[in-house]
Amino acid sequence: MRPFPTRAAAPTAAERVRSILAAAHSMTVVSDGLHSEVRRLDGAGAMGHFHLHAPCEDPDAQTATRIPVRLELTDIAPTPVRDRVRARLTVTGLLAAPYSAQATESTCMEFGQAVLEDARGRSYVDLHALEVTELDPIATNEASMLTHLVDDHGELVPLLLRLVRPRPGSGMLRALPVAMDRYGVTLRLEHPHTHHDVRLPFKTPVTDIDQAGPQIHALLATARRLSHANHLPA
Predict the structure, then answer these.
(1) Dihedrals φ, ψ of 187, to 5°?
(2) Which end of the chain is more exposed for a tag (fewer CB within 10 A), N or C?
(3) How confident is the model at residue 121 (pLDDT cuts 50, 70, 90)?
(4) What order do you get walking across the sheet with 195-201 strand by strand?
């Protein structure tokens, strides 16, 4: 039985942006020369505080004074891996009125662009791409699922390593899950001076959060079968 390849389907830039906006616990709002730290997003994510909409086509509105705004979010791995910053996201746009962190309703924001910076480089995402992209069903549960795996079932991580090819060498210090999305689990392999990530894809992309558990169990079952096959007598 062949293990999973290290390259596999991964979220698009638009999917990553949607996940970060939905799962973020904090963000910085930069507008009118002020930096406002919004540290508690109350489970609603950034979009619980901002309503994104397309540029207004009304000529009168276009000539009205509008205030530039920038949302800055940092995607941090929930597990204690080396280099925990997974991505940085900047969303720019315009406001019709000064931003207030004390506002009880979401603030309307004329969308400019979203800029995602991660290990793959810099990606630009427009509003249409965000609107047609479904939210990853794992996004808002990823942190709790990964910390549960590490804290309560840490013995399963070495089992998942059996799916990695080429096999990690003896110089590897440790491996930890660094991300999970609808397409699979990502492990970070740490060496004395470097680290790299490998993806273990699910058999099929998850379309509902209830499918995540069975998909993880399927990965573990494959790893066990692979281990058993490797120990069979020739």
Answers:
(1) -105, 140
(2) C
(3) very high
(4) 174-181, 184-190, 195-201
Distance CA 144, CA 83 (A): 19
- In angstroms, the CA 113 to CA 82 distance is 30
Report the predicted TM-score, pTM, of the whole model to 2 decimal places. Answer: 0.89
Which pair of tokens denotes residue 23? 């799962």
> How many C-alpha atoms does 74 have within 13 Å on its Cβ side?
10
**221, burial (CB in 10 Å: exposed 0-12, middle 13-18, buried 19+):** exposed
pLDDT for position 170: 84
Which pLDDT does position 40 carry in this prediction?
Answer: 72
Cα 222 from Cα 99, distance rounded (Å): 51
pLDDT for residue 232 is more than 50: no
pLDDT tens digits for range 159-204: 999 999 888 888 899 999 999 999 999 999 999 999 999 999 999 9
